[in-house]
Amino acid sequence: MALRLYFTGTRSTEIHDVDNRLKDCLDALQGRVGGTKTKAGRPLKPIAPNDRQIWRVVVQKSRAPKNSHGRGHLTIRRLSAD
Predict the structure, then answer these.
(1) In this predicted model, what pLDDT tens digit does every residue of 6-54 receive, in sequence order?
(2) What is each CA distance from 12 to 4, 7, 25, in whole angstroms?
(3) Which of 9, 29, 30, 72 has its CA 20 to 30 A from that of 53?
(4) What pLDDT does residue 64 have?
(5) Is 32 exposed, middle or buried (0-12, 13-18, 19+ CB in 10 A)?
(6) Which of 74, 62, 68, 56 is CA-nearest to residue 16?
(7) Distances from the Cα of 37 to the Cαs of 25, 47, 55, in angstroms?
């Protein structure tokens, strides 16, 4: 899994830890969004039911390019046998 986080502004890049943002993404892939105190209107169908299925993660934090609208990219692909 490759996760590229884009942030707008210098302060945003300083205060957001990649490990916390990664955990947010892993939770969302399991169908859990909004944190522990949020009650979702409808449960989401999990893409990866358990994060134990994920064997490799690369996380990169950077300033947002102009065309990204402050969002990021998440790429998931099957791990090839080496």
Answers:
(1) 877 666 666 778 888 899 889 888 988 876 666 665 678 898 889 898 8
(2) 14, 6, 17
(3) 72
(4) 77
(5) middle
(6) 62
(7) 17, 22, 28
Q: Are 2 and 56 in contact (CB under 8 A)?
A: no
> Is residue 5 within 8 Å of residue 80, measured between CB atoms?
no
Paired with 2 in beta bridges are 58, 75
Q: Which tokens in the block code for residue 42?
A: 């409808």
Q: 3-class SS at 7?
A: strand
**b/e 41-70 (16+ beta carbons within 10 angstroms → b):** eeeeeeeeeeeeeeeeeeeebeebeeeeee
Which of 47, 79, 73 is closest to 60 using CA atoms?
A: 73
Helix (H, G, I), strand (E, B) or coil at 61: strand
d(CA 9, CA 70): 9
